[in-house]
Design a protein that fits this description.
This protein has 187 residues and is an alpha/beta fold. Helix content is 33%, strand content 33%. The protein is built from 6 helices and 10 strands; from the N terminus they run H-E-E-H-H-E-H-E-E-E-E-H-E-H-E-E. Strands 4-3-7-8-9-10 form a 6-stranded mixed beta sheet, with helices on both faces. Strands 1-2 form a two-stranded antiparallel sheet. Strands 5-6 form a two-stranded antiparallel ribbon. Helix 3 packs across helix 4. The longest helix is centred in the first third of the chain and has 15 residues. It is globular and about 45 Å long.
Length: 187
């Protein structure tokens, strides 16, 4: 499958500085200016090819907010329900908090509806510093949830191998990028 919509949109994406961090503003990672159906289908279609290699799993799990469109599309296509790790605490029985630290922020997220023995895949929009993914994988492992694979739309970092080794989980990325002199380059 060609990734022409994704590649074109990444080349056109504006970049803003958040301290020393180059933040790429893109439809898949930010919803800005908007997500076209063609782009969403292209990204999730590519993800689906790799997800099917995971075998059977009970749930798709994503993190609020920009993993939600990806998980929704995949859920509809695969007929598998999805759970959103939220930024809001509900205080429900069994709720577990996750300390999230990214390249530009720090916050808490909350897991509800997952339990020991669940088999899941994780889907998210971007992997950059790995702060969110490491925290989520750590907590899911503590709960006893089996993560069969992690599927990321855009990889902009150097942490993938470290996380795969640390948590013994495969991470598949749709496109790998880097920012060079204020422009997105596809690796």
């Amino acid at each position: 499958m060609s990734l022409k919509h994704l590649e074109k949109s990444l080349h056109e994406a504006p970049i803003v500085k958040k301290g020393d961090y180059d933040y790429v503003i893109h439809p898949i990672t930010d919803g800005v200016p908007y997500i076209t159906p063609e782009l969403l289908k292209e990204v999730t279609g590519e993800m689906k090819k790799h997800i099917k290699k995971c075998g059977k799993f009970d749930r798709i799990v994503t993190m609020e907010a920009m993993g939600i469109p990806l998980a929704t599309s995949l859920s509809l296509d695969l007929g598998v329900p999805f759970t959103i790790i939220r930024k809001r605490q509900y205080g429900l029985p069994g709720e577990v908090s996750v300390e999230q630290v990214t390249g530009y922020s720090k916050s808490k997220m909350y897991i509800n509806g997952l339990k020991k023995g669940d088999t899941v895949i994780l889907v998210d929009d971007v992997l950059s510093t790995g702060g969110t993914l490491k925290a989520v994988l750590y907590v899911l492992k503590e709960i006893g949830v089996l993560v069969k694979g992690v599927f990321i739309a855009v990889y902009k970092g150097t942490c993938k191998e470290e996380i795969m080794n640390m948590y013994d989980v495969p991470i598949t990325t749709t496109v790998d990028i880097e920012v060079i002199q204020g422009k997105v380059t596809i690796k």
